[in-house]
Design a protein that fits this description.
Number of helices: 1
Strand order of the largest sheet: 5-4-8-9
Helix content: 10-25%
CATH class: Mainly Beta
Mean pLDDT: 88
Order of helices and strands: HEEEEEEEEEE
Structural class: mainly beta
CATH topology: Immunoglobulin-like
């Protein structure tokens, strides 16, 4: 009888500690995180740059069907204004679901702006959802561009 009681108590403890916590709720304002920028150096005009960011959004309204609507803003630290990019919907239009994932962004081959033989830059990135909420702004690692 005592062994049976110990076994039941032990199984109860195992079940208690193996229960899943309630799913984490995301904010309806998009959140992004820097993952990578590669390569770390490139000859100007010759090589595209690959930027990877993680995103999560509580209502899944990132991206638009309209190709003339911009959701992604990437600012080269050497320039005064950000370049704007279209992002296709990351969840079915009309749905309201939590989403998370990675965006793989291909940036056209960078170039040296000044008269020197090389320059180093980084990028500031943010997302805007269909409700007009802007994500946090992240700064990438740096890249050296050579002539």
């Amino acid at each position: 009888m005592k062994a049976k009681l110990i076994s039941i108590s032990f199984l109860t403890l195992i079940l208690f500690f193996s229960c899943k916590k309630e799913d984490e709720k995301y904010s309806n304002t998009p959140e992004i995180e820097y993952v990578s920028l590669s390569p770390s150096s490139a000859p100007e005009f010759s090589q595209n740059v690959r930027l990877v960011i993680k995103y999560k959004d509580g209502d899944g309204d990132i991206g638009t069907v309209d190709p003339d609507s911009y959701s992604l803003f990437i600012k080269d630290s050497r320039l005064p204004k950000a370049d704007e990019y279209h992002v296709q919907p990351l969840s079915p239009p009309g749905s309201s679901i939590q989403i998370e994932g990675e965006l793989n962004i291909k940036l056209a081959g960078p170039f040296v702006l000044g008269t020197g033989t090389s320059e180093t830059t980084s990028f500031k990135v943010k997302l805007k959802d269909r409700a007009g909420n802007f994500s946090n702004e992240i700064t990438t690692g740096s890249i050296t561009i050579t002539k």
